[in-house]
Design a protein that fits this description.
This protein has about 240 residues and is of the alpha+beta class. It folds into 2 domains: about 200 residues, no CATH class; about 30 residues, no CATH class. Helices cover about 35% and strands about 25% of the residues. The chain contains 9 helices and 11 strands. Strands 3, 4, 5, 6, 7, 8, 9 and 10 form an 8-stranded mixed sheet that branches. Helix 2 crosses helix 7 and helix 8 packs antiparallel against helix 9. It is globular and about 60 Å long. The protein starts with a strand and ends with a helix.
């Protein structure tokens, strides 16, 4: 079985994400960070930024377990209030459940039972069994090391006047593993993105362009397929 390779990219979020992708890594989501903590590949004491996001439209929001827009961010991406600027139409097109602030407990620490029923945590974790394993281990650490019974708050921004998309990060033990989106994507704090690569180092999978695929098909003498594949790939992009 291929061994998972992780690498930390630290710096300004929207500058480090392109470096991570260019180096052939995939940014971890909140669910994947949780799993890697349970696998003892990431520390419970450190915070980690993710490719999981939250999109705002006034007092409504959508939680996005894996955001392609966050992965594609660059230093030239237009921002508003520290998040990727969206139009109302772009917000509406996001294929995720819309929530209201009155629907779930926000901006407060939770007891373990609350976390397991929290819609925001369930959407980020994508797997209730994974969330159960994580909360069991994490709340034990909080009790043993801090003698507290609350942790794992779900902290988001106030209602936004302009639609925008922000990234979640997962705090460490000192901040009780809160899920948080308060830092801006252009903040001069050390974002800590985690990239994953399967197999030996230096063997990242190459992403072939449609033109390269078309050339190979022609060399193989396969007629009629290259145009269809090319059109399909361009549609997906």
């Amino acid at each position: 079985m291929a061994k998972t390779k992780l690498k930390i990219f630290e710096g300004i979020h929207r500058e480090q994400m392109p470096e991570l992708v260019k180096a052939g890594y995939k940014p971890l989501t909140i669910a994947e960070i949780i799993q890697e903590r349970l696998n003892n590949n990431l520390s419970f004491d450190e915070y980690y930024d993710s490719a999981s996001g939250i999109a705002y439209l006034e007092d409504k929001f959508k939680i996005i377990p894996y955001s392609q827009e966050l992965v594609k961010i660059t230093s030239n991406t237009p921002l508003h209030n520290g998040g990727i600027k969206l139009t109302p139409k772009e917000y509406e097109a996001i294929p995720a459940k819309e929530s209201s602030r009155k629907d779930i407990p926000l901006n407060q620490r939770l007891i373990q039972e609350q976390v397991l029923e929290h819609q925001g945590w369930l959407e980020l974790a994508q797997d209730k069994e994974l969330l159960e394993k994580y909360t069991e281990q994490f709340f034990k650490q909080v009790k043993d090391r801090h003698n507290e019974d609350t942790a794992m708050g779900f902290y988001i921004r106030d209602a936004q006047d302009v639609p925008n998309l922000r990234a979640f990060y997962l705090n460490g033990l000192v901040s009780r593993s809160d899920a948080d989106d308060w830092y801006a994507l252009n903040d001069y704090y050390d974002a800590r993105l985690v990239g994953v690569r399967e197999g030996a180092e230096g063997t990242a999978q190459k992403n072939y362009t449609p033109e390269e695929i078309s050339k190979v098909l022609k060399e193989l003498g396969v007629s009629g397929l290259e145009e269809k594949i090319l059109e399909k790939l361009k549609e997906q992009r």
